[in-house]
């Protein structure tokens, strides 16, 4: 009885997880389409538009990675944070005070260091049974 309840709970959680991923993917695609329509109507593409599209692509990549592997790579949210901060910096740089500009750029630097640290940790200390990072590192160092 206990195993059947656990099995049902796992299936319900997996269903909710996949439904949530589908909602996130569809919402992201709709937002991307909306942003493209704004660019077409304005007949202009700005750097902030491109950075916003990169944010959407990172979200889709994160959903795809999570859907394919069942794991959420920590790097993806860090990448999203870096691009979001860069977009914020680009959009508000004229009205931004010096200390705020330094704080935003320092935040981007900290996120970059966090990505490097996570990558180093995955390559140097891989999880048992997870050779994807180590294999990727081995392939890049051979070339």
User: Total number of helical segments?
Assistant: 5
User: What's the mean pLDDT score?
Assistant: 87
Distance between the termini: 55 Å
Helicity level? over 70%
Largest sheet: none
**How many structural units, i.e. domains?**
1
What value does the Rg take, in angstroms?
20 Å
Q: What would the principal axes of the Cα set say about the shape?
A: flat
Percentage of residues in DSSP E strands: under 5%
Number of strands: 0
Layout of strands and helices, then pairs:
Elements: H1 2-42, H2 47-69, H3 75-92, H4 98-124, H5 132-142
Helix pairs in contact: 1-2, 2-3, 3-4
Task: Supply the key terms.
143 residues, mainly alpha
Please provide a written account of the structure.
The protein is mainly α and 143 residues long. It has one domain (2-142). Helices cover 84% and strands 0% of the residues. It has five helices and no strands. The longest helix is centred in the first third of the chain and has 41 residues, at 2-42. 6% of the residues are buried. The mean pLDDT is 87.
């Amino acid at each position: 009885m206990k195993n059947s309840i656990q099995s049902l709970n796992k299936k319900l959680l997996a269903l909710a997880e996949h439904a949530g991923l589908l909602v996130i993917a569809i919402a992201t695609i709709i937002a991307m389409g909306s942003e493209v329509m704004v660019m077409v109507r304005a007949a202009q593409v700005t750097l902030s538009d491109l950075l916003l599209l990169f944010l959407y692509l990172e979200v889709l990549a994160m959903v795809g990675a999570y859907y394919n592997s069942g794991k959420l790579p920590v790097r993806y949210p860090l990448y999203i944070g870096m691009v979001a901060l860069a977009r914020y910096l680009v959009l508000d740089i004229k009205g931004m005070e010096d200390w705020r500009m330094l704080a935003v750029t320092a935040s981007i630097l900290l996120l970059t260091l966090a990505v490097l640290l996570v990558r180093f940790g995955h390559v140097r200390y891989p999880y048992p049974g997870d050779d994807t990072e180590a294999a990727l590192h081995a392939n890049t160092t051979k070339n």
